[in-house]
Amino acid sequence: MLSQIARLSATAGPSEFSQVLDRGISALEKEQKHGAIAGGTVTGGLVEIHDYDNLAIISDLHGDSKTLFRILDEINHERFLSSARNKMVFLGDYVDRGSDSIGVLYAICHLKHAHPDSVVLMRGNHEAPSEFPFPSHDLPYSMEDRFGAGAKAIYGRALALFQLLTLATVVQGRLLLVHGGLPTDALGDWRQAIATAQKRHLQNRMMEELLWNDPRPLEDEDWEPSWRGIGRYFGSAVTKRWLAATDTKVAVRGHEPCHGYRVDHHGMMLTIFSCREAYPNFGAAYIIAGKHDLDSVNDADGLAKFVKKLL
Ligand SMILES: [Mn+2]
C-alpha cells in the first residue's frame, strides 16, 4: 500500500510543495534557536544525542522516493516517530540522479515538521552551498519540469533548507555520523569546528571534507587527493583520532554505493547506502537498533548486525 506521504508528495503543486519546504525550514530554525531536540543538543551544524530508545539511520536516497517509502513502511514510521525518544537520522544526498528528488524532499520536510524531535536531517554534498561544484545537480531541472514558472523561487527555498542541515551527529558514547567522511586537518575543538563549518566554509576545509571525503586503506599517510577532485581520501589514523576525540566507537557514513554496507579502517568505519534506482547494481539498506543493542556495539562489524537490507 502506498503511504500517505507518497500520495501527498506525488500530487503536490507548487504552492503546497513550497509550504512543506517552509515547514521543514521553520522546524530546523526552531531547533537552532533552542539549541536542542528532545534528548539532545543542537549547536550549529552539530547534533548530539544523549537520551533515546531506538535509532534508525537512512543513508543516501538520491531521488529514489520508492525505496524511501519502502523503508519508512518497514520501520512503521508513524509509530516509530510518534515517540520523541526514537530518532531517525538521514545522512543526506536526498536529491539528484533518481527520478523523484521532489518526492524525497517533500517527505523529509514533512517528517521533520511532524516529528521535529525525532528526525535529524543531515547534509550531503548534493545539498552543498552553491560555491562548491556539483558534478550532477539536476534538482533545478526537475523543479522546472514539475513546477514551471514557480520553480526558481522554490529552488531558492530548497537552498535555504540546505543551509540548515546538520553536518555531523554524535550518538553519545557510540556513533559518529557524517555524510562523506572525517576531516584530515589537525583536530582542535571539534565541537566548535563542526558547529561553525557552515559559517566558515570559505575559510577552512571542514565542510568540504565532511561532505566529500571517502575512507581508503591508507596506512602510511593521513590522506591523499581524491579522484572526485574535491574532498580527500582519508586513512584509518584519521578515523581513530576522531573516534577518540568524540568518545565514539564507530563512524557511520554514506556517500558511496555499496552492497548494503561496507566496513573499513579495521572495523572503525561503516558505509551504508539506502537507494538503488540510480545504482541498480548495488543494494539498498538502513540501520535500525535499540539503545540497549547499540550500547554493546564496539565496532562496525557489531553495528552491521543491525543493518537491514532491502530485498
Ligand atoms: Mn554523497
Automatic annotation (TrEMBL):
Keywords: Manganese, Metal-binding. Its cofactor is Mn(2+). InterPro entries: Calcineurin-like_PHP, Metallo-depent_PP-like, PPP_phosphatase, Ser/Thr-sp_prot-phosphatase. Pfam families: Metallophos. It comes from the Archaea. SUPFAM superfamilies: Metallo-dependent phosphatases. PROSITE patterns: SER_THR_PHOSPHATASE. Residues 122-127 form the Serine/threonine specific protein phosphatases domain. GO terms for molecular function: hydrolase activity; metal ion binding. The keyword Nuclease does not apply. This is Putative serine/threonine-protein phosphatase.
